[in-house]
Amino acid sequence: MIPVIRPWLGEEEAEAAASAVRSGWVAQGPRVTEFEKAFSGYAGAAEGVAVSSCTTALHLALHLLGVEPGDEVVVPSFSFIATANAARYAGATPVFADVDPLTGNLTPATIEAVLTPRTVAVIGVHQGGVPFDVDALEAVCSKHSLALVHDSACAAGSTYRGKPVSASASLATWSFHPRKLLTTGEGGMLTVSDSDQAARLRRLREHGMSVSAADRHTSSGVKLESYEEVGFNYRMTDIQAAIGLVQLAKLPDVIERRRELAGRYHKLLAETDGLTWVTDPEYGTTNYQSFWVVLPDSYEGTSVDVLEGLLTRGVSARRGIMASHLEPAYSKVDLPVTEHLTSRSVILPLFHQMTESEQDTVVAALAETIR
């Protein structure tokens, strides 16, 4: 069975994790600090704040911005449900906007279509690693005095106008889940441009503690902490950070390989009439965290039929990006582009160790299933 994803993990990560365990420092500590500096440098950001997941990073971002009950936050429905859930965690109402049919991302037009006097923020998602048009979204948010949070969960290594995808972001959030190009098992990061905000985020992730546990343990004197605001337990461990440092060093090779394989997919899939697929927008490059295809209009089956057909041919694929507004947890609204993409798209296998033979098998299985 060809898997949809296979993390690129090996002895280096195992040794890094073991070294953290042997050190006796397994909670948030010096390796977390090292990982924050290394990742924020890679992302072109001033500061990094490591947390337990991208979901907790999104929640902290909205909490930092002062989002509260009665507020509305514009989000794409065409995203993993955590994007919308984060607004609810802050007590706000997520308002779903439609997306561009080619990139799967929010646009100024889709945002402005759902704005109300209660809108205070927008969460823009670089969906599947495809960058949204940062300048365009920043302009529309500035026009309406809205905060813009980058949900960069899938986008480590993607670029926007020649720079790291969220380098200009005031607030960006990242995921290190095993389906991402850089994994720490679970884990996330906020990258921020303001040092005061970074300092507050570090307090908030650790119960609102004025002095971190790591600082107290390494101090030569007595340091007593205080709790000036209610915080959360959103910390990353040193074991995770140790793995993350190894993974970060591998990331350029991972992106190069994925883009090479994606280019080969483009050539092979061109032989199937009516099929379209994810590619670079004109203003940036994608890391191909997810390689999705949109089924031909002539195909009368569903994406589930395709998944079942691929499975019988030894290929494990996934449905396209979900539509959160169609889930029972949320109310249905009219989002025609989102509904078309989520019902007619399939995510194909793509991973660093993938062979050309495996890729040939995937393409042949997809063509046979569609026929």
Automatic annotation (TrEMBL):
Domain of life: Bacteria
Active site (record annotation): 180 (proton acceptor)
Modification N6-(pyridoxal phosphate)lysine, positions: 180
GO molecular-function terms, A-Z: pyridoxal phosphate binding; transaminase activity
PANTHER family reported for this sequence: DTDP-4-AMINO-4,6-DIDEOXYGALACTOSE TRANSAMINASE, TRANSAMINASE
Recorded family membership: Belongs to the DegT/DnrJ/EryC1 family.
Full protein name: Glutamine--scyllo-inositol aminotransferase
Organism whose genome encodes this protein: Kibdelosporangium phytohabitans
